[in-house]
Here is the input.
Amino acid sequence: MNLSKISVTILMVATGLLLGIGSIGCQGEQVSEKTKAEGDKLAEIRERTGYSWDKATEADKKFLIDTCQGNEGCAKNLLYQPKPGGISRRPKPGGAPPPPPAPGGN
Here is the structure.
C-alpha cells in the first residue's frame, strides 16, 4: 500500500470518527451512535496515553488497529492525530531541527 492510499485511509477514518459521518448503506442513527462511541473511546485512549503508542495497552492497540482495518501504521497515525484546531503530537523524525548556519560562514 503506498503512502497516498494510507493518507486517504487515515483521513477518511479520522473524519468519520470526529465528525460522525456514517458509511453508505447503513442506518444513519445507528451509525452515528456507533461512530460517536468509537470517537469517545479514541479520545479516552488519547487522553490516557498522552498520544503515545508505547503507552497504549494491548487492548487499546487492538481497538486502533481494528478501526484501521488491520493497518498498524494507520492505527498509530490515528492515535497521533491532533484535536481539531490543535497541534500534532506526533514525534518528529530525527529529533530537533539543525541549528542555523553561523553568520558569515559557509
Observations:
- The CA atoms of residues 46 and 63 lie 12 Å apart.
- The mean pLDDT is 75.
